[in-house]
Amino acid sequence: MKTPKLYFVDGAVPESPAPTDTPAPWTETRVVGKSLPRVDAYDRLSGTAVYPSDVVLPDMLYAAVLRCPHANARVRKVDGSLVERMPGVRAVITGDSKAADLRWYYTRTVFTKLFDPTCRFEGEAVAAVAAETPQQAWDAVRAITVEYEVFPFVADERKALEPGAPAVHDGGNRVGEPEKYQRGDVVKGFAEADKVLEASYRTAAEFHTPMELHGCVARWDGKRLTLWDSTQGVYGVQQRVASLLEMPLANVRVIGSYMGGGFGSKLQADKYNLIAAVLAKLTARPVKLFLTREETFLCVGNRPPAGMRLKAGVKNDGTLTAFDLTVLGTGGAYPTGGTGLVDWLVRDLYTCPNVRTEATDVYINGGPSRPMRAPGHPQGAWALEQMMDALAEAIGMDPVQLRLKNVPTVSQANEGQPPYTTTGLRQCLTEGAKAFGWDAVRRRSKGDGPVKRGVGVAAGLWIAGDGGPPATVIVKLFPDGSANLNMGASDIGTGTKTVMAMVVAEELGVPLEQIQIENADTGTTEYATASGGSKTVPTEAPAVRSAALAVKRQLFELAAEELKVPANQLYIEGDAVVSTKDPKVTKKIAALQGLRRRGLLIGVGTRGPNIEGKVINPFVAQFCEVEVDTRTGEVEVLRFLSANDSGRVMNRLTYENQVIGGITMGIGLALTEQRVFDRQTGKVVNRNWHDYKIPTAMDVPADMTSLPIDVPDPEANTTGAKGLGEPVTIPTAAAVANAVYDAVGVRVTESPISPMRLIGLIAARGKRG
Amino acid sequence: MGHDQNDGKGGCPQGVSRRGFFTAVGAGALGAATLGRSQTPGAPPAGAAEPTKVTLRVNGRAHTVLAEPRWTLLFVLRERLGLTGTKVGCERGECGACTVLLDGTPVYACMMLALEAEGHEVTTLEGLMNGEELGPVQQAFLQEDAFQCGYCTPGQIVAAEGLLRANPQPTLEEIRAGMSGNLCRCGTYAHIFKAVKKASELKKVAGR
Ligand code: FES
Ligand code: FES
Fold first, then answer.
1. Of A384, A525, A669, B178, whose CA is between 20 and 30 Å from A480?
2. Do the beta carbons of residue B120 and residue B5 sit within 8 Å?
3. pLDDT tier at B43 (50, 70, 90 boundaries)?
4. Which domains does chain A have, with CATH numbers?
5. What is the DSSP annotation of A30-52?
6. A61-110: per-residue pLDDT in tens?
7. Crossing angle for the helix pair A377-394 and A652-671, nearest 10 degrees?
8. Stretch A577-593: mean pLDDT
9. Partner residues linked to B50 by β-bridges
10. Residues of chain B positioned with their CB less than 8 A from the CB of A42
11. Three-point CA angle A521, A523, A524, nearest 5°
């Protein structure tokens, strides 16, 4: 069996042809692995980088969208006629406009319309305006009159299956049959256990809120459409926009060379792409449409909430005997995968012969979810890793030891239980514990005063992070030895461009500052899947290497003639080609006559398939120390250490940055982030960064350590690297919860660990005992 | 090009507090400035949409634009002057992506009307460059890799510049507090702390 589908992909993903070279990963490197500043640092720090939201075109209009203010309603009548005469207004479109009569789908199983009269969540698009200024567009949006028929709603997934709950879709609130998984016999497993524990856990829904707002600029040149889109994947946007507008792919160009963050919320096209395109067409002017921050809390995705009931059995020696997990979740108003992968860690992270999981996905009147950094995994870790801690305590074992006792060698949840290529979990735990000083701090006193200290550990793996085809990349070598790298992948902030340039430099000896990069533009760069799933480096880097090797092969053929040395006896040293037999036989690349004559060498590289019969996963263990004020319930995170096995470290500096970023986001899940619906109206009440609290500079420790288990995975791909961006945030929240327990002896099973919640639990425990 | 007609006229030397914002422009323009959040349908308040001439001094140069009184400084910088180094994250004073220096003090450009900035010296990210070279704070952000997507970064850099002008040798706690008005969803704070420290060293060496 293949691992379950991670991200919703529009249409079939093409496969790239097999690469010509499949060399083993490097044994020694000169550039790869170093701590090097980003190749596009200048652009991003000087302000010269043009992000899609920075695009200002001559004669450009601005658009704004009228959104349904109700959680569940039907548009009876919408009247934009008066608005058309307002100052600056150039076009108004509603569900009645012929130009806007387009199909839409959140997932391909349920088709609606661009402006559908049925609004199943607050924030659904109802109409849109283009005007000379954004202020005028908003004036007009506010003046459009809409008659809504307002229905009862359900905003809490725990109530969605109750009798009499308002039905979000005609067929009721169940999204298909519950998803079930089983191996072994859990009844037998629990019977064999010395200790059996059971608990309920819940993680609140989170919002991605990348810093750059969602949106695009659309411009038509006759029948051709160009979109400057803040997206993680230009090709996915091109595919959907072209298909919904019934246009040839070649006539839809999507450009997203820079973008300001996505975290999974910008993997696909959105309604705003179509709205901008339609308005631009109607007005024959370029149109800029960026959402407001508030809108991004309503309609561009979320990490779904997860309710989890977990029962676990363990023997006194630490052998796990059974896990039984029940999940209830919701992707909101459409089938966007409300429970996807929540059970994966319970199924796969630790050796356990008897496992049963069941996940029920329901509809609510909420914005549709989108994949958010390691979909399902931080939720699953929140339950599993707190449970592991509780089991360890129940049998009097150290929590690190209990995890070490159950490190798997095969992927039990995949069919046939194939082995992993590499499993760094053991090193992550042992080396992480050592570097953190786990044994010593664990034994230390919690403090006599009202402020208590505690430490926590949690581990994880990421179902993907293997990458794979398709990927095609072009490397060009200019006659002076400088190079151009052309790839479709977006650099969403992870350092993709830098890592890829380092691969070129490794093979061709070109200094980084002499590599020009062209990326994320369907008009000029090669096909790439969206940057997400921690798969960009393991997907693209091998293709880049293959392209660089194709250039190298041609270069050596040219040099062989001029140096009178067989091509297979040459190597590159600095800016010169050198004979392996005699280092004095050498010529500078820029001095090669053949290269001058050709003007340019072009290498095309592709990404080959992954190894059969094995599973490629990154692993992680994190350790943290917290301080809990028992008078206020406030938690302060003092330090964090993340030990990661993501195969080869491609760039130490950007690697560390991913680690601190993942920890920071995980601290948000643990302590502050939570979507809140108003009970009376079903509206999102904290739709802004004042009330929806993401970590600030005051909320994270300066003391964050990245400890890479830097062992290249020889079977993963030709670079030996596995994905990193997601594993870094998987165990974070659970580690914080475990540290809070260590500090004050209170288990917070529901996220976030807010002062109110924690102080309540501390007080309740006081009363009990 | 117009020239500082409003020099010396009133203004808020400490940057503009949100309270100052309310009192300076009155409720009418405020309603329009919080566009899209009001549920009351209707046209803009009278006067708010009448364009007037506004002269801004940005990075040492004067620019005269025809602006509606309700336009924010942020909007004019980005969409009228093309100074897109200043970013937009929320337009309601939450994130700091729009941070600029007003007479040397960091302010949120989205919380200030363009009109209000008349008579003040505005410095944006672009104004921190040494010609084509990165300035010391930018250089420090490069060396410490204090950004990922880079979208919050201009605001972070300008905030750091403001902090260091007021306090050239900040402690870690002062850095955290000084940078706490700027969100980074990519979560690069730990590197930002290092970069601000490094910037303070670079500035000392450069003597600026
Ligand atoms: S855009 Fe000004 S504070 Fe967010
Ligand atoms: S670098 Fe992306 S938000 Fe700060």
1. A525
2. no
3. low
4. 60-151+211-261+266-296 (3.30.365.10), 306-465+613-764 (3.30.365.10), 467-606 (3.30.365.10)
5. SSTTS----TTHHHHHHS-S--G
6. 999 999 999 999 999 999 998 899 999 999 999 999 999 999 999 998 89
7. 70
8. 96
9. none
10. 134, 142
11. 75
CA A506/CA A546 separation, integer angstroms: 12
What does chain B come to in residues?
208
Question: Using CA atoms, how far apart are residues B171 and B156, in angstroms rounded to an integer?
Answer: 17
Q: What is the dihedral of CA A290, A522, A44, A208, to 10 degrees?
A: 50
How is A638-650 classified by DSSP, letter by letter?
EEEEEEEE-BS-S
CATH for B52-127 is 3.10.20.30
B143 → closest Cβ in A37, A293, A688: A37
Most B CBs within 10 A among A67, A135, A491, A672, hence the mutation to make, goes to A135
Domain B136-206 is of which CATH architecture?
Answer: Orthogonal Bundle (1.10)
Give the count of alpha carbons within 13 A of A84, CB side only: 9
* Equal fold, B52-127 vs B136-206: no
For A645-686, the pLDDT digits (tens) are 999 999 999 999 999 999 999 999 999 999 999 999 999 999
Residues A499-521: tens digit of each pLDDT: 999 999 999 999 999 999 999 99
User: What are the sequence ranges of the domains in chain B?
Assistant: 52-127, 136-206
**B70 contacts in chain A (CB < 8 Å):** 135
Taking an 8 Å cut-off on Cβ atoms, the answer to whether A51 and B91 are in contact is no
- Exposure string of A39-75, with b = 16+ CB inside 10 Å and e = fewer, is bbbbbbbbbebebbbbbbeeebbbbbbbbbbbbbbbb
Compare all CA atoms of chain B with the CA of A725 and give the residue at the minimum distance: B186
Give residue A435's Cα distance to chain centre: 28
- Cβ neighbours of A117 (radius 10 Å): 19
Beta carbons within 8 Å of A96's beta carbon, 6+ residues apart: A78
- Its pTM surpasses 0.90: yes
Report yes or no: A371 and A267 within 8 Å, Cβ to Cβ.
yes
Is residue A122 within 8 angstroms of chain B, CB to CB?
no
Residue B125 has pLDDT above 70, yes or no: yes
Q: Are A736 and A717 in contact (CB under 8 A)?
A: no
CB contact under 8 A, A51 and B151: yes
Can you say how many angstroms the Cα of residue B56 is from the centroid of all Cα atoms in its chain? 13
Distance (Å, whole) CA A745 – CA A768: 13
Structure tokens at A447: 């403090």
pLDDT value for A533 = 85
Q: Do A689 and B91 touch (CB under 8 A)?
A: no
Q: Across the interface, do B189 and A134 touch by the CB < 8 Å criterion?
A: no
How far B57 CA sits from the closest chain A CA (Å)?
19
Sign of dihedral through CA atoms A542, A548, A549, A550? Answer: positive
Residues 124-163 of B with CB under 8 A from A: 124-126, 129, 134, 138, 141-143, 145, 147-154, 157
A382 vs B14 pLDDT, higher one: A382
- Of A53, A654, A690, which is closest to B145 when you measure between CB atoms? A654
* A122: phi then psi, degrees, rounded to nearest 5: -65, 130
| CB-CB contact of A520 with A255 (8 Å) | yes
Pick from B42, B79, B141: which is nearest to A143 by CB?
Answer: B42
pLDDT in tens, A360-406: 999 999 999 999 999 999 999 999 999 999 999 999 999 999 999 99
The greatest distance separating any two alpha carbons of chain A, rounded to the nearest whole angstrom, comes to 89
- Residue of A36, A46, A291 best to disrupt the B interface, most CBs of B under 10 A: A46
With a cut of 70, say whether residue B27 has pLDDT above it. Answer: no
Strands (E), A46-205: 61-67, 73-79, 89-94, 103-107, 110-113, 118-119, 125-131, 145-150, 179-183, 195-203
